[in-house]
Amino acid sequence: MAISLSRSVRETTSARPLFVDSLGQKRSARRPMDSVISSDYHWQVAITAAVMVTLVTTISSNQRGHYGISVIGALYIVAGTLPIVPMVRAARRGNVTAHAWRFMAAGVALNTIADIVYALHDQRPGRIPVVAPSDVIFLASCGAFIVGVVMLTQTRRGLIGASVRLDGVIAGLAAASLVSFFWFQQLVSVGNGTVHAVLDMAYPIFDLLMLVLIVAALAPHRYRPDRSTAFLMAGVFWFVIGDVIHVSQQANQPFSSSTGADLTFVVGIWLMGLSASTRAQRRRPFEALSEVTSLSYAAVPVAAGFVSILVVSACTRWDRPPQVVTLALAALVLVLARMWLTLRAEGCLVRSSNEDARTDSLTGLPNRRFLIEQVESMLSPQGSGRAGVILIDLDGFKEVNDALGHGAGDILLGMVGARFVERLGERGTLTRLGGDEFAAVCDGPEERLVEIAGELLATTTEPCLLEGLRVRLGASIGIALGDAGSHSAYELLRGADVAMYDAKKHKLGISVYRAASDTNSRESLSLLNDLRDAIEGGGISLHFQPTVDVRSGRIRGVEALARWEHPVHGMIHPDEFIPMAEHAGLISGLTASILVQAIAAVSELDRDGHHLNVSVNISRLDLLDDALPELIEETLERFVFPAKRLTIEITESSLDEDPIRAARCVDRIRAKGVRISIDDFGVGYSSLSQLLGIPVDELKVDRSFMSGLDRDPRAQAIVRSAVQLGRALGLSVVAEGIEEVRVLEVLRGYGVDIGQGTLISRPLPARELAVFLGSRSDAESALTQRAVLVGL
User: Fold this and answer.
1) What percent of the chain has a predicted confidence (pLDDT) above 90?
2) What is the gyration radius of the CA atoms in the chain, in angstroms?
3) 538: left (phi over 0), alpha (psi -120 to 50) or beta
4) pTM for the structure as a whole
5) Of 643, 595, 654, which Cα lies nearest the Cα of 621?
6) pLDDT tens for each residue of 504-544
7) Mapping DSSP to helix (H, G, I), strand (E, B) and coil, where does residue 358 land?
8) 8-48 pLDDT, tens digit each
9) Which long-range contacts link 123-129 to residues 24+ away (Cβ below 8 Å)?
10) pLDDT digits (tens, 9 = 90+) for 184-228
């Protein structure tokens, strides 16, 4: 009876607490949770009381070895039956371990029945058969326990779950070989017979098998059992001790009973009851299976294999039955099978990990990492040596996402991706970069990639039925091509991105990357660094273009024009480097450098008797710089230069960035006595409204109206209106870009005040300007000769 009780206890204990983690336990439909917990507590007290009574009675009694139902036997039956109640209660909670607990309860019930059969029938003197009825029932109870433990330890991880169960079989075989090595021959020789010897050794082996399954199942939780599992493991451990004591005693005194072994089974039953009535604790996310190292899982098979090798080696020295070697070799074979399973699992994991790392989880398409590797492969010496990237950014996707939700947006991305794959076919590989961006890797000339891009663009306009709505999208597509040795995968992807944004900005649909027009290329970055050094090191110089009084021909002033002489690229025009300075935040330093150089140069000319006005252009961003008025004032004071001889030229469009701040800045500059000129007048669309909002002293008619002014009636009408407007507002009117004598004659007739252009002089460096001016009389004589040509 004691043996059977130990087996049942062992199995029941291993069950439930390990694997209720993620799903938890449902609340009882019959009573509140606090009542259920209170009831569990009452059963724990009842089981503990029954066990304590059994222990005290057994230790103090002299009825050892009595055949039949005695007081102690009755207590054993009660103590072995009570754990069924908390097991049935656990099964009735309806969680995922319900069936497992039913098997465990069945195991306890069968075990109790086997005890009764053993006591009433099999234990009678002279009537013990080779295989008694109680043995059959005991084995049935063990089978129920094994099924229950396997169900409880099922991790639902496929191959890993099979490996964990295989570890239990390996440990059981290794333990069987070890137990057989010490006791099998002795059990047979004392008269039990081979069948009885096998049965006697089976029970501790089953104990060890259950214990290994439980311990192995704790691996995903870093071998940290909760309270319920700790009760279970302790109970199984006591069963192992009891069965080992029983086998040892049977090897020396067959058909005898041991109070010590019986008591271990009683303790094990008690611990199993506590386990069944103790609620499992929820596991935290960090205790996931993926965090368990392979070494944790390898501990059991490695230890079992080591034991089996020792047993086989010992059998070569000491004579043992062949069954011992057979069990040890079987364990070693399964260890090899376990190693194969582990290697296969690791291989599958690596392949799956590599595939996941290169796959977009939403659409199932290859991802950015795959694209980079694919392009690098194509550009390698083993590849074709060239590659093309078509980058597609969906237009209108954000609106769909905002209107219908992210779930609908994800569905839409999957639909569009599938259509792209179908349209692309075998001509390339489609990938998803993230968000609403896709990219195709193709091989072929530019014409072929543009053709493919056109087909993909047409695909986006096909309607998608989404939540009952017909949704249409658009796309902006950028194309970049590269050859081996001159481009990398990242450079191609960047080029396609630049082209895509160019297509989006200019509503082109499709744009092909051109390095020459890339303002953010590596060359542009290098040029920007050179510009920064030029501004800080005085590498920006000025050229000065004279302005004259159209009526008298006298030189009135000069306009300072910035020039950058690059050591490699030569002379770089302001239209190229000023936008760079604005974009990089260098414009304030550039403006300060131009102001200082311009005023310094004109002040130098003052010493030679040339008292000229000077005009300086400023950027639209300068008007948003609150420090600009103070900078102008400090520069004027530094060179003792009259403020009325300085003109700050601003464009109409520069006032659109932030009209209020710009107007405030202009007011502060004007308040210091500096003149304000509207440059490129007539080009902007808001000229008249700007004239009313800021203090202006001068209008500068754009050079675009000067070409063919003598023969273009429309240009004549615009310039004539500008002059009349300036006169009406009391402003000076300047015409720039004068290149022909006939144009100068027309402007004089309209009443233009100041003229500027190559007809008078090209922009000159400061030294050449001084030579050009010479003495005042020489300069005026030269200009007078030109003025005579136009009737001045």
Assistant:
1) 26
2) 48
3) left
4) 0.50
5) 654
6) 988 889 999 987 667 666 777 788 899 999 999 989 999 99
7) coil
8) 333 333 333 333 333 333 333 344 444 445 556 777 787 77
9) 123/67, 123/68, 124/67, 125/67, 128/255
10) 555 555 555 566 666 766 777 777 777 777 776 666 666 677 777
Structure-token pair, residue 469: 């709505």
- Number of Cα atoms under 13 Å in the Cβ half of residue 176: 28
Distance CA 388, CA 395 (A): 22
Give the start-end residues of each E strand in 490-640. 510-512, 540-549, 555-566, 570-572, 613-617
Tell me the backbone φ, ψ of residue 733, rounded to 5 degrees: -120, 125
Q: Which of 90-94, 124-128, 181-185 reaches the highest mean pLDDT? A: 90-94
- Distance from C-alpha of 112 to C-alpha of 223, rounded to nearest angstrom: 32
How wide is the angle at C-alpha 507 spanned by C-alphas 504 and 509, nearest 5°? 80
Q: Which of 113-127, 414-428, 478-492 has the highest mean pLDDT?
A: 414-428
Distance of CA 736 to the CA centre of its chain: 57
Provide the mean pLDDT of the chain: 78
| CATH tag, 546-561+590-789 | 3.20.20.450
* Short-list 579, 656, 598, 588, CA closest to 627: 588
Confidence bin at 780 (pLDDT 50/70/90): low
Kindly report the CA angle at 264 between 239 and 273, in degrees rounded to 5? 70
**Pairwise CA distance, residues 691 & 627, whole Å:** 24
Q: Two tokens at 640? A: 């003792």
Q: Per the structure block, which two tokens stand in for 636?
A: 């004027």
Q: Coil, helix or strand for 102?
A: helix
Rounded (5°) CA angle 263-268-270: 95
Return the biggest CA–CA distance within the chain: 153
Mean pLDDT of 729-735: 91
pLDDT of residue 157: 43
Provide mean pLDDT across the span 603-621: 91
Please name which of 641, 545, 654, 644 lies closest in space to residue 596, comparing C-alpha atoms: 641
What are the tens digits of pLDDT across the range 540-549?
A: 999 999 999 9
What is the C-alpha to C-alpha distance for residues 364 and 362, in angstroms, rounded to an integer?
6
Q: Are 216 and 300 in contact (CB under 8 A)?
A: yes
Which element (helix H / strand E) includes 697?
none
d(CA 760, CA 772): 11
Of 339, 337, 330, 348, nearest to 298 by C-alpha is 339
Lookup: tokens for 674: 């500096």
CA atoms of 458 and 507, how far apart (whole Å): 15
DSSP conformational letter for 278: S
Residue 85, token pair as written in the block: 């109640």
CA distance 77 to 81: 6
As a whole number of angstroms, the distance between CA 108 and CA 8 comes to 5
Distance CA 382, CA 313 (A): 55
Q: How is the chain split into domains, by residue range?
A: 2-158+193-281, 368-518, 546-561+590-789
Query: Rounded to whole angstroms, how far apart are CA atoms 702 and 705?
Result: 6
Which residues touch 34 (CB under 8 Å, ≥6 apart)? none
Q: Could you tell me the end-to-end alpha-carbon distance of the chain, in angstroms, rounded to an integer? A: 136
Q: How many Cβ atoms from other residues are within 10 Å of residue 718's Cβ?
A: 17
CATH architecture of the domain with residue range 368-518: 2-Layer Sandwich (3.30)
| pLDDT at residue 679, rounded to an integer | 87
With CA atoms as reference, report the closest residue to 308 among 340, 334, 338, 337: 334
What band does 337 get if pLDDT is binned at 50, 70 and 90?
Answer: confident
CA dist 11 and 106 (Å) reads: 11
